[in-house]
Design a protein that fits this description.
The structure holds two protein chains of two kinds. Chain A is an alpha+beta fold. Chain A has 19 helices and 31 strands. Chain B has five helices and five strands. The chains are: A alpha+beta, B alpha+beta. Chains A and B meet through helix 1 and helix 17 of A and helix 2, helix 3, helix 4 and helix 5 of B.
Chain lengths: ~750, ~150
């Protein structure tokens, strides 16, 4: 197929608004009579709320309303999976973390709202917080949720074959413990939005930065007890999400604020509030035992993961499931006994974060395989090549590329002899890792049955609008969809509007996560455009006085296949359709034949680092990702996704950690939680692709948004270890860790 | 309230401000110039960067009264008669924009650099934007965009 627009470096359709400051993010929106909201978060991770007195705050001039649980008419509960969070913690109940909300203030200005917060008197009885998974598992520990005995949030397992007897046939067995921290998304735009109600009985509108408009609408409707049909949730273009805005964040707060105060409300979390409130990447303690025969065939893996979910379930079951799945990665291991356990604690809540469990699993797996290769005296890449998945043992129609193909490309960037160190006391090393990240191709069981929807309409002037429930958070979805429509309907990008993330105007599409946006959204849009194309061709055939099969749609015209000079402009046909009442609006649903199925990509990450043996300072010289893309729909945005994800791994490997001490986070700002700056990251980042069309993908594309982070983290950690001849199993690898390792 | 006057995007403006009001809040709330973003209000993230008398500054750390008599350039001031500033165009062309939230600040930091030093080294470029945090791009295509303008 010879595409006109797809596969080309089309400039982002939202870039001009972004470079000029014109784009309105959620916190930039304004409506008449706008008031400002603030949230009183719990002062303690675990405490009994004895009393809440709001009189003084309510009396402050400029305060419109102070809202507590007493004002909430509905069940006052929200949350993904279990609806296990109080919207507002009632008197007599326990708080579960420092992100629980006790009261909302609505005032004329943000400053007054802030002042009013200080006047709310809450009497707490502080209780000892459960601050570690060990404390949570202690038989004497209090229960965070009455229904969760042993404070167990969820257990996920993957068992196959007979691990015990397989280990007896192994010539080499190694065991490693890998310790991975909790980390923060650090999107630069904090949770923000506005909300208002049309009249007394009208629709509640919430405009906010979010990755899924549908679930927050349910949370709002449930918590406040209002019909879901009255709740309109619209995603603004996000200032970064990375999974941190996947589930409901402040949307139910906003809804309660406007519903119970009767005025439009804006709420923008401060950075400190954002860090204490939103879900983090799960920390993990991973124990892996792996065994192989002397010729390098891995026979068995035994793995145990312990993770800290924080106080609420949210996405923990899904994240932990993937973490367990990722322990065996891109390798065929015939005998598996893998188990992950998540505990409830009073620490910060954890949930979705780019990679969704795979980065932790990949670290446990790749670092242990390095250890196995070292013990066997085998080249680590050779060990991986001997066990890499091939067609015959892949269960989901993945079309994996061969390891040799990925490796060959990687070698062209990070092959040959190591570069010379830049000076005395410097050493250089390389590390590689292979990974098999997932992308969602059929969504959750409920959406898997209906499929993922999109609506497309061509107007009588030939211009087009797309309604898609997927959101734009920087990944480039809006541009990819514009490219697809331009390709399918032969129109210019400028003639296309893409309306995103609206729970009312867009057919159900589910969440924007799991590297699924362009895949499921793209497929559903293609289906809708094909129906429109069909209608146009039929009508054009009448105009050209021929059979429908004799005409074809080209760029801005429909023409006779055998006589291309006989044609009619597409927009003229669109006008005819309008005048004759022929529908050019279609809703389509992309559906995989099996629900809850994932596709996989097969990737390699490589890092080349220089380590200062005196100071322990690490310079990442090169960071490369070779990615099995299926088909690259836009090389520029595709590279952007790979670079961005890969360089998030730089922070994961070397800098980032947000520990909690008895439930209190140890970082409240970007001066306490450092993320990489332009000076930290490697100047040579490489992203390259292998195009092996995937039959189910739009134009053969696979998902890719998250995939650069998974392998890059173990590659960097491995490279540092190789440079100094030591191994590191604990993240982040800090300068002092390196100095201590060198000392012995 | 205090009256101040200053040059904003080449035009003289007069504004009444609170003594404790930041330049950031004045721009966003009083003048409706929301292209200047709020990310941390502590000078850690650089999303609120504007150019003040030729220097890139965090507008969350500058009081509105401090700009009295000075010249401020915000992201809204770069486009002239529908023509983008070359740095804005370079960010589009090189794919430097993802979510875009850091981009106004990033563009103004790099503009302040290029106005003073049209031939910066990569190290100087990276230093000039090291106060502007970006979580999407890994800075790769941003640095490419700035480098493409080096004379």
């Amino acid at each position: 197929m010879n595409e006109r627009i797809l596969g080309k470096e089309v400039k982002r359709v939202d870039a001009r608004d972004k470079v000029t400051g014109r784009l309105k993010y959620a916190g930039d929106l304004r409506v008449p009579n706008l008031h400002y909201g603030k949230v009183l978060f719990s002062a303690y991770p675990r405490a009994k709320v004895l009393s809440i007195k709001t009189d003084k705050a309510a009396a402050l001039p400029g305060v419109k309303k102070v809202i507590t649980y007493k004002d909430v008419k509905g069940p006052n509960k929200w949350g993904y999976t279990n609806k296990d969070r109080f919207l507002l913690v009632p008197e007599g109940e326990l708080t579960r973390y420092v992100g629980d909300s006790i009261a909302f203030v609505v005032a004329e200005t943000e400053k007054v709202a802030q002042e009013a917060l200080k006047l709310i008197e809450v009497e707490y009885e502080p209780l000892k917080a459960i601050g570690t998974t060990e404390e949570a598992a202690d038989p004497g520990a209090p229960l965070i949720h009455d229904y969760a005995s042993g404070n167990i949030c969820v257990v996920r397992e993957a068992v196959h074959g007979d691990v015990e007897s397989a280990f007896t046939q192994c010539d080499y067995i190694v065991e490693e413990d890998v310790d991975i921290p909790r980390i923060e998304h650090a999107f630069i735009e904090t949770e923000s939005g506005i909300a208002y109600v049309d009249g007394l009985e009208g629709i509640l509108h919430v405009y906010s930065c979010l990755q899924d408009p549908y679930y927050p609408a349910w949370d709002i409707s449930h918590a406040l007890g209002i019909p879901q049909g009255k709740v309109h949730v619209k995603a603004t273009l996000l200032g970064g999400g990375f999974g941190g805005k996947l589930d409901t964040t402040i949307q139910a707060f906003l809804a309660a604020m406007t519903y119970y105060s009767g005025v439009p409300v804006k709420l923008v979390l401060t950075r400190e509030e954002s860090i204490r409130f939103h879900n983090k990447r799960h920390p993990a303690k991973i124990h892996v035992k792996v065994g192989a025969t002397k010729d390098g065939k891995i026979l068995a893996m035994h793995g145990r993961i312990i993770t800290d979910a924080g106080p609420y379930h949210d996405r923990t079951a899904e994240v932990l499931g993937l973490m367990v799945h990722a322990l065996s990665g891109a390798y065929h291991i015939p005998n598996l006994d893998l188990k992950g356990t998540a505990y409830y604690t009073n620490n910060l809540c954890c949930g979705a974060f780019r990679g969704f469990g795979d980065p932790q699993g990949a670290l446990g797996r790749e670092l242990t395989l390095n250890s196995l290769a070292r013990t066997m005296g085998m080249d680590p890449q050779e060990l991986r090549a001997k066990n890499f998945l091939h067609d015959e043992n892949v269960i989901f129609e993945d079309r994996p590329v061969r390891l040799e193909q990925i490796k060959e490309k990687m070698d062209s960037y990070l092959g040959g002899p190591l570069p010379a160190p830049s000076g005395p006391n410097k050493v250089v090393g390389r590390g590689f890792s292979f990974d098999k990240p997932i992308f969602d191709i059929s969504s959750t069981p409920s959406l898997g049955k209906s499929g993922v929807g999109a609506a497309v309409e061509m107007f009588q002037d030939g211009s087009v609008i797309v309604h898609s429930g997927i959101t734009e958070m920087g990944q480039g979805y809006k541009t990819i969809i514009s490219q697809i429509v331009a390709e399918e309907l032969g129109v210019d990008i400028e003639e296309i509007q893409v309306d995103l993330g609206d729970n009312i105007s867009a057919p159900r599409a589910g969440r924007t996560s799991a590297s699924r946006g362009s895949f499921v959204g793209g497929n559903s849009v293609i289906l809708a455009t094909q129906k429109i194309k069909e209608t146009l061709l039929k009508r054009a055939a009448i105009e050209l006085d021929c059979n429908k099969d004799a005409v074809e749609l080209g760029y801005k015209k429909i023409y006779l296949k055998d006589m291309p000079e006989r044609s009619v402009p597409t927009k003229d046909i669109a006008m005819k359709c309008f005048q004759e009442g022929i529908k050019l609006r279609e809703e389509s649903w992309f559906k995989h034949h099996k629900p809850f199925v994932s596709g996989h990509t097969y990737t390699c990450a490589g890092a080349e680092v220089e380590v200062d043996t005196v100071t322990g300072e690490v310079t990442v010289l090169k960071l490369a990702n070779i990615h099995d893309a299926g088909k690259v729909l836009n090389p520029q945005t595709a590279r952007g996704q790979m670079y961005g994800a890969a360089l998030q791994s730089f922070g994961y490997a070397l800098m980032e950690n947000i520990p909690c001490e008895e439930g209190f986070p140890k970082a409240r700002s970007f001066s306490e939680y450092k993320i990489p700056t332009a000076l930290d990251v490697p100047s040579l980042a490489i992203a390259d692709f292998i195009e092996n069309p995937y039959p189910l993908g739009p134009y053969g594309a696979k998902g890719m948004g998250e995939h650069g982070i998974n392998g890059s983290t173990p590659a960097i950690v491995t490279a540092i270890g190789n440079a100094i001849g030591k191994k590191f199993n604990k993240l982040p690898v800090l300068q002092e860790d390196i100095v201590n390792a060198i000392k012995g | 309230m205090q009256n101040i006057s200053f040059t904003l995007n080449d035009k003289l403006v007069k504004v009444s401000v609170e003594p404790q009001e930041t330049l950031l809040d004045m721009l966003r709330e009083r003048l409706d110039l929301t292209g200047t973003k709020k990310g941390c209000e502590k000078g850690d993230c650089g999303a609120c960067t504007v150019i003040l008398d030729g220097e890139a500054v965090n507008s969350c750390l500058v009081l509105a009264v401090q700009v009295d008599g000075k010249s401020v350039t915000t992201i809204e001031g770069l486009e002239k008669d529908g023509e983008l500033d070359p740095i804005q165009q370079a960010f589009i062309d090189k794919g430097a924009v993802q979510c875009g939230y850091c981009i106004p600040g990033m563009i103004l930091s790099s503009k302040a650099l290029l106005d003073k030093n049209p031939s910066p080294t990569e190290e100087e470029i990276r230093t000039s934007i090291s106060g502007n945090l970006c979580r999407c791009t890994g800075y790769v295509q941003i640095v490419d965009a700035i480098k493409s303008l080096v004379k």
